[in-house]
């Protein structure tokens, strides 16, 4: 068995066990394989082990791997900061964007989404730890942003994404994830939305994320090993 297959099997067990502990169905937790710096053949191995959702952070790197993997039925998710001059290629080549944090980017993605494709799924990235330097929408601007995105034609707002400040404390990890879940519920109530996606949890905090309702965990290291 390849290391990647082995890692994915271990990850699945970890997810099943966390789901059971927190009385959730493991079926409601999607594994997004985050493959930045890893090769197209590593992605193909992850697919072989049953994964379909692939996350990439850098446009050029992603396009190169996509070109090598057109024979596989993969769903591509963009996870990096979205620069305005990259929105067209992102709108054309991805199914999801998890890192929308301002209206201008959402407007461009909507305007540039090709007509023959379904609306682009997007998550608003929230700056949950309120760090000055970090990307993500400020919590107090979230309702306004979500409301404006909701009115765009060719994107579908699906939920929220966070990259919390790293912590080794389980309780602290859970707090940021819980707050994000509550923010999504508030948006659904206030704006009458049906957001269903909480993109949260990485290799080191996936159990806390599952405890607080993550529906999509973004896993790199625990699948592909350390990045260089
Ligand atoms: C790299 C990355 C991940 C995966 O992180 P690991 O700790 O390797 O699992 C998840 N989300 C985003 C946005 C990333 O950039």
From TrEMBL:
<dbReference type="Pfam" id="PF01168">
    <property type="entry name" value="Ala_racemase_N"/>
</dbReference>
<dbReference type="InterPro" id="IPR029066">
    <property type="entry name" value="PLP-binding_barrel"/>
</dbReference>
<feature type="modified residue" description="N6-(pyridoxal phosphate)lysine">
    <location>
        <position position="36"/>
    </location>
</feature>
<comment type="similarity">
    <text>Belongs to the pyridoxal phosphate-binding protein YggS/PROSC family.</text>
</comment>
<protein>
    <recommendedName>
        <fullName>Pyridoxal phosphate homeostasis protein</fullName>
    </recommendedName>
</protein>
<keyword id="KW-0663">Pyridoxal phosphate</keyword>
<comment type="function">
    <text>Pyridoxal 5'-phosphate (PLP)-binding protein, which is involved in PLP homeostasis.</text>
</comment>
<dbReference type="InterPro" id="IPR001608">
    <property type="entry name" value="Ala_racemase_N"/>
</dbReference>
<dbReference type="InterPro" id="IPR011078">
    <property type="entry name" value="PyrdxlP_homeostasis"/>
</dbReference>
<feature type="domain" description="Alanine racemase N-terminal">
    <location>
        <begin position="12"/>
        <end position="227"/>
    </location>
</feature>
């Amino acid at each position: 068995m390849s290391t990647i297959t082995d890692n994915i099997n271990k990850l699945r067990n970890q997810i099943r066990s966390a789901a059971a502990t927190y009385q959730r169905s493991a079926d409601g937790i999607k594994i997004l394989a985050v493959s930045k710096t890893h090769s197209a053949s590593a992605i193909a191995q992850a697919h072989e082990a049953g994964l379909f959702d692939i996350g990439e952070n850098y446009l050029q790197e992603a396009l190169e791997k996509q070109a090598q993997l057109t024979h596989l039925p993969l769903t591509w998710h963009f996870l990096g900061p979205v620069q305005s001059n990259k929105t067209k290629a992102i709108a054309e080549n991805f199914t999801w964007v998890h890192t929308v944090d301002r209206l201008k980017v959402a407007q461009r993605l909507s305007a540039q989404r090709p007509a023959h494709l379904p609306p682009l799924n997007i998550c608003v990235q929230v700056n949950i730890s309120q760090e000055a330097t970090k990307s993500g929408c400020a919590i107090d601007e979230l309702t306004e942003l979500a409301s404006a995105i909701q009115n765009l034609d060719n994107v579908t707002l699906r939920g929220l994404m966070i990259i919390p400040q790293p912590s080794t404390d389980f309780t602290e990890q859970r707090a940021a994830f819980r707050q994000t879940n509550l923010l999504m519920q508030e948006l659904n109530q206030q704006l009458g939305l049906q957001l269903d996606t909480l993109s949260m949890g990485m290799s080191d905090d996936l159990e806390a994320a599952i405890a607080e309702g993550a529906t999509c965990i973004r896993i790199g290291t625990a699948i592909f090993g350390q990045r260089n």
